Amino acid sequence: MLVLCIAVYLDFGTHATVPLAYYYPLILVSILLLILFCPLPIANWGARKWFLLSIGRLLISGYYSVEFRDFFLADEMNSLSYSIEQFEFAICAYANGWKNLECSTGQMWITPFVTALPPWFRFLQCLRRFRDTQQWFPHLVNCGKYTASLATIFIYFSYRHYGGYRLKAAYIVISIITSIYTFTWDVYMDWGLFRFGKYGGGAYGRPFLRPELVYSWEWAYYVAIVLDFLGRFSWILRVVSLDVNPLILSFSLALIEVLRRWMWNFFRLENEHLNNCGQFRAIKDIPLPFHIHVESDSESEVEDN
Prior knowledge:
Helix content is about 65%, strand content about 0%. The protein contains 13 helices and no strands. The protein has helices spanning about 1-15, 25-35, 45-60, 70-80, 80-95, 110-115, 115-135, 135-160, 165-190, 220-230, 235-240, 245-280, 295-305. The longest helix has about 35 residues, at about 245-280. The N and C termini lie far apart (about 75 Å).
């Protein structure tokens, strides 16, 4: 905010052909990169080192065995496709000096390949997990989900570039398939909800939920299911006739996806923790409502004597 305020202040006091505010994103990114790559033991160097190593593992997905941080970080990146696309626009804008811009990302052939990187990383991770476990479910089924996501990206950019009813129809069909696929996976696999019988929460008065919940507000789970469904189908706003600026619409859809992913994180981590406890990879300490006195060895010897 300080850098932005300084840039705006200088804009009102200068007569430069290119406003200094145009350089604010470049300055901000430069500062963030300097902080991130600073090798000095300051500003949480341990956390920054962990993050850089995690990004490195992500870039070579499929080479290492997949850990939780690998696929969790890749899932986060899947919700940042708009930001990745705008970073590409920024490179083009600065390369042209912000003059006579012809930087429409929808017309750049490289755009779908750049925005397809996050689902491609997850695709490779799913194949690696299948190789390590030899279990086709859930890994190959999850791989199919990201295959559908990749197809959606390339069909959508073809529709943006060439237009036409056939590409529009293809985009709608593949988007419906992908949205149903991803929503089902979100709720059933990632959150562990929509369970029935002995694995469900119906016997505990919580239909469609789990027998065990971490969060005390049960209604939040039902609200999350509805919001996740709406978020997964928000692409419909692209194909209906809305009197809205395309830039505002794109930003709004990107914001909806980021908020959906933010909500998804809570229930995904909850389900991961419960699965770890169920498989004894983690332990939940449950305090007893009364005190238990444990005799020491010395006390036992005195009683024996």
